[in-house]
Amino acid sequence: MAFPERFSNLPDYAFPRLRTLLDHHEPGGEPIVMTIGEPRHAVPDFVAPTLQAHVAEFGKYPPNEGTPGLLAAIAGWLRLRYGADLGPDRIMVLNGTREGLFDACMALCPEVKNGRQPVVLMPNPFYQPYSAAALSVGAEPVYVPATAATGFLPDYTALSPDILDRTALAYLCSPANPQGSVASRDYIAKVLALAEKHDFILLSDECYSEIWRDHPPVGALQVADEVGADPERVAVFHSLSKRSNLPGLRSGFVAGGPEAIARFRQLRSYGGAPLPLPVQHVSEKAWSDEAHVEASRALYQEKFRVADKVFARIHGYQGPEGGFFLWLPVDDGETAALRLWRETGVRVLPGAYLARDVAGHNPGKGYIRVAMVAPKEEMQRGLTQLRDCLYG
Ligand SMILES: Cc1ncc(COP(=O)(O)O)c(C=O)c1O
Fold first, then answer.
1. How much is the pTM?
2. Ligand 1 mean position to 109 CA, how many Å?
3. Which residue of 87, 89, 128, 232 is surrounded by the most CB atoms within 10 Å?
4. pLDDT tens per residue across all 392 residues of the chain
């Protein structure tokens, strides 16, 4: 039987790898799970009554691109948050951003770039679907270090003109998973200028945009507007998973240039699953309400303060600027995760599982990723045990 080769070099996904590492060892205490980025703050109050009010609409096929009401709510939020003025033809709703980030390569990556195999740039470490997306269209994923040396963001401007001329798409994640770094206005403006010069599209994954420490992170749409970039230069991805504590709703969107969004819509009209109508109604409410987002952000900000206190004396500790992950330096992430599990029952992810080896070096190897999603007391207990075990 012939199967495709294109995914044969993909490592197993991070979570099955973690199970292989830990699950044949007994936990050293009551397990505290700090691995997955699944928000555990309350589901907003409007979800149940809205689903109930629209339950009969499960009996209908939903519109592919989003209901007019949902597209208008998203446009309203983009205006409020970024001052961006986008018509409905520049927005496409998604079943969460993961599938949109994956579909982006299928919808937007050309077969050849300047006569050669196209390149898709991504930070390293990175959100893992980016690389599978590049491979799915026969593009070459190029992993660009996003380490302490580069401010935990990829320095795309340092790449060779040869790579940049082959670049069709570049992923950026801000606030970054796993590093917690946030791209500045100046950083995004430079990437947009590079995109213009070398003719590629910036895919800006902003699903953690509403979880921040001191001030709201700037978004790529906003910067594109400010510098007068071609609207086709950037596509941004936003989700209700983190903003509204609704990872199980599966609801997000992509916004970008009219041509890019038309291509997304066409692809999804053939192969995508539109969001059920009751889910679209809930999503409309969620994009129209900031109170639940502010309440959740306040809880995360408390968690940042707890983490800062717990790790105050730890050399190399840097709390996140945004998002809800700690990216903690250790000698070796796998050894640390295993030891922590066996001695305390705290479960974290080795950083190497979120990065690729380049020239024999894995930039995530000396880190663990810790998700601050559990209720505050449980999280504080987990962090304190972690500190005493790994840094004591
Ligand atoms: C960086 C990043 N992008 C995108 C996603 C996808 O989220 P969703 O598909 O729930 O919108 C995640 C989820 O963990 C993420 O961490």
1. 0.97
2. 21
3. 128
4. 889 888 888 888 999 999 999 999 999 999 999 998 888 899 999 999 999 999 999 999 999 999 999 999 999 999 999 999 999 999 999 999 999 999 999 999 999 999 999 999 999 999 999 999 999 999 999 999 999 999 999 999 999 999 999 999 999 999 999 999 999 999 999 999 999 999 999 999 999 999 999 999 999 999 999 999 999 999 999 999 999 999 999 999 999 999 999 999 999 999 999 999 999 999 999 999 999 999 999 999 999 999 999 999 998 898 999 999 999 999 999 999 999 999 999 999 999 999 999 999 999 999 999 999 999 999 999 999 999 999 98
Ranges assigned E (strand) in 41-181: 91-94, 119-124, 140-145, 167-173
Pocket test for ligand 1, best of 241, 243, 244 (most atoms within 8 A of CB): 241
For 19, 123, 233, 251, 332, the CA distances from 356, given in Å and listed in that order, are 19, 10, 27, 29, 15
Rounded-to-10 torsion of CA 5, 6, 10, 12: -60
Spatial CB neighbours of 216, under 8 Å, sequence gap ≥ 6: 81, 209, 210
Give all domains of the chain, ordered by start, each with its CATH number: 14-42+292-390 (3.90.1150.10), 60-289 (3.40.640.10)
Q: Helix axis angle, 333-344 relative to 14-22, nearest 10°?
A: 50
Q: How far is the CA of 388 from the centre of ligand 1 (A)?
A: 31
Taking CA atoms only, the protein residue closest to ligand 1 atom 2 is 127
